[in-house]
Amino acid sequence: MEAAVPAFGLLYLLCSAFSEFFSGVFINQYRFNFPAFIALCQALVTIVLLQLLRQARLLKIKPYLLESGEIFLLPSICFSFHSVLTLGAVIRSNSNVFTFIRRFTPLATLAFMKTLNLKKRTSFSNAFLVLVVTSCTVFAGLQSFTDEAVVYVYGVLNLLFKSTYLTLIQKLCEDHKMSVVDVYYTCTINSCPLLFVYCLLHPETPRIFPSGSWSSLIFLGFFVLALLLGSLLNFLVFLCTLLSSALTMNMIEVAKTDMLALRNITTHEWTSSLPLLTSLLISTSGVGIYMYKDTRETKAETRKDSTEIPI
């Protein structure tokens, strides 16, 4: 299953592109600027879908337990705020500063992994690749920023929340053997009360229903599609993290950011230059090499663990 991580990574990139496109169209076209409400609806849709799949016996999901909820409480809180901040970035049309700060996520994740002393070690060569990729992608993202100061704060918080919740999930799953679906289900249920309270306390919440075109089938179609794609995207994040590592998941995210930069160059939104193209080439190649090395190391560890099992 670990060998399927590159395939799931490609699926994540594809799903992420569709999710950001439809979410951007929905939010900007209908000016539905309520990220916490969208995140709450997405969590509720996820729970309903998982329950339906469980009832149809297509998935095996353990019932929610307060003990498991307590274990995954901290990553669930970080996951909730990360979801809100990410949707907020879509509202701001993925501001340059927010995207730029997100390029530091692999390096922050590597630091968290070293701090938490995870069982799955990052080799020196892979750590060096992370440093090279981060340096090149950061250089490629350098430009004149005109965003407000609060966007810098949101960007840093998003960086910390994502690095924290992915690393904690990996750490907790090393200590408590749980399936990807069970972890995703538990964290999603944990996030609902927090998002609900956030919505209640937010001053713009009374504008949610007057702002929506709830009688329009097109509005409802885009809304449901954005929720479903967001749910699938979050599941793929959990899946790639638990099959490989939080660091691998964030390296895939860097690849997505680099591809968006290449798209901006081809559409002449960015001015092309040799240093910029070289940085993007090194960064993208570094992610590819990292994925190849990480897959081989994961396979070797799996074989080693299987041979050490006593008969």
TrEMBL record:
Keywords: Membrane, Transmembrane, Transmembrane helix. GO terms for cellular component: membrane. It is a multi-pass membrane protein. The chain crosses the membrane at residues 29-50, 71-91, 128-145, 151-169, 181-201, 213-230. It comes from the Eukaryota. It is found in: Membrane. PANTHER family: SOLUTE CARRIER FAMILY 35. This is Sugar phosphate transporter domain-containing protein.
